[in-house]
Amino acid sequence: MSNSNGYMKFSNRALDIEPFRVVEVLTRAKELARQGRDIIHLSVGEPDFPTATPILEAGIRALSEGATGYSEVGGIPELRNALSKFYAGEYGIDVAPERILITPGASGGLLLICALLLNPEDTMLVTDPGYPCNRSFMRLIEAKAQLVPVTSQDNFQLTPELVAKYWQESTVGAMVASPSNPTGTTLKKNQLIAISQQVKKLGGQLIVDEIYHGLGFKKYIPSVLEIDSDVFVVNSFSKYFGMTGWRLGWVVAPEGAVKEMEKLAQHLFISSSTPAQYAALACFDEKTRFILDERKEVFRNRRDFLLSALSSLGFSVPCLPEGALYIYSDASKFTEDSDFFCMDLLERQGVAVTPGTDFGLIGAKQHVRFAYTADVEQLSFAVDRIATIVT
Amino acid sequence: MSNSNGYMKFSNRALDIEPFRVVEVLTRAKELARQGRDIIHLSVGEPDFPTATPILEAGIRALSEGATGYSEVGGIPELRNALSKFYAGEYGIDVAPERILITPGASGGLLLICALLLNPEDTMLVTDPGYPCNRSFMRLIEAKAQLVPVTSQDNFQLTPELVAKYWQESTVGAMVASPSNPTGTTLKKNQLIAISQQVKKLGGQLIVDEIYHGLGFKKYIPSVLEIDSDVFVVNSFSKYFGMTGWRLGWVVAPEGAVKEMEKLAQHLFISSSTPAQYAALACFDEKTRFILDERKEVFRNRRDFLLSALSSLGFSVPCLPEGALYIYSDASKFTEDSDFFCMDLLERQGVAVTPGTDFGLIGAKQHVRFAYTADVEQLSFAVDRIATIVT
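ok -> structure tokens follow
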């Protein structure tokens, strides 16, 4: 059974994997902008700041010095060491550089982990709502994401009870994200411990997406590495470090998995971007951190503004988004068709936001994700425009 | 059934995918170099020139201007247009920019094509010897590369007869490379036509690896795009354009496949490196092309030198390597165990080369791949050292 467009057969996986709604929104938003419309972009999960100057300068220096060849498959030793020091300084934990693999974006890390752990027909628990690409990476290799409905009662996160309830013969592990995309909620230390123990008890593997960890607005958000060294952690230079277009991430793997992952990375990537890695070395300079932490405060301020404004309009946000770049709101007061709602908002008012249908099935048609990737003035204009169609 | 290291289960695919021998050679070569040994590196397929200055300068300019965000999933329009013009100028053919997808290295392109075309258990014909990662990409998604033994009689390339002979119920296509890694042989226009017609007759899809096309030493090496617009072509900025560590490649796809490939790329990559794409725009400047073409002549000269020297020593190279960076030699006069031969050559004489076992099964233990990625003086030293262990 294959999809066909008349002369060419596509794989079933190509048929199964759905387009990103956010890209459809973005494409239309760009069309409208070209027509001269004033569009406010609150759709894509990309900080609206350029890469910080010290990182740019390090990148320029690397290019001037000709750092343009392939690099070690697990990353340049300097960057693995810098991340090891980062974990020591930031979290007070000891993560050996050898356990840290540099990857082509967090995307590369997710592919490696799925390829390493999942046989065909194996399943992995993921939250609904959750990051859509997790499902696609599993589908790619003929395994399957099992969507676990999570609710505001559980802060939109997995619990040990949910893990046990949805665990099947075919389940090999569970994936959580803290802070989460799209809800921005986080897991407390005792929650991480409980989930980790539950997954271990069931003989599975825990994977934690900490891509938005640097953009956490609570005083303390624990890394799972503080409580468990047998987990896989996916992280990225894209969000807090502001290097989206450079395509650079990392994985912290259990010691026994590193060699196998490096072997897979040889075949799948050869190496990660070398100039990007040398640029990323500047991420850990004091000057850079100051810039990044200041930006984090800007994001926190935007969250506070937008959360309050959306609530006033009647959007419901039952759990405080404690990190990331998003407010995932229940828009059921206004729509039962979030795809239409988002396209209508874009067409009529020029505000680009993402329908819940990107993130799962449960309540997806009543939810909308707002990314606060514009300054407060723009957010304020956006709120005024949204008001015209919901009031 | 899973591989296990005591506490963790790995997938069968992780077990099946073999390590690159070339990386093992490289790792040991680096160890020896750190110990103060003088090593001549003829193993990895990476030009020993830094990225050309105009490309570096374009990269630096892009960074200075803050081109650091995500870019369009199929690549920045400027680069797709530049490649379209490149095909018109270089090959006299019309390839619409929309058919050209920028990818994270040729690796990204190979993953996309495999994901698009192959269901589990489907097979794809590939040459033995051939590029090892092709097999791994197919294994990744639970499909299978079917190795077709090719011989010097057929210039180490597929023929319509071989395609017919090895075609099975499960076969969905055939993959060829011109110039080929590891043999450097190319396909003539009439051969491309014959293979294309045969694959079409059998209802399959032809994929052509043209990664080394810019490093062809014949006056005319045809692109398959001159004779067929229904094929997938994989290409790269790594080899001729000298941008290995930037991780940038492209695919030319049949018109009807582009939308599906872009959808897959959204999930798997989000985007290719943005700074790399802006840097790559300078690849097509007259000044850059002059530098690159000069380097090509250097490679041709090295090939001539090394081919003659190796032949004098008793290595047999039945087909002239017409492009790429390699001489794939029959070393059966000296060894029946190329893995041992290569490690021995490295340990005793400090010359790093790649055993045939990386490239397939047929004759692999009697073959050795020499990459001419060092200047003629170094190559001459290498030949002297090789002579000490084979004479």
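The two ends of chain B are 48 Å apart (CA to CA).
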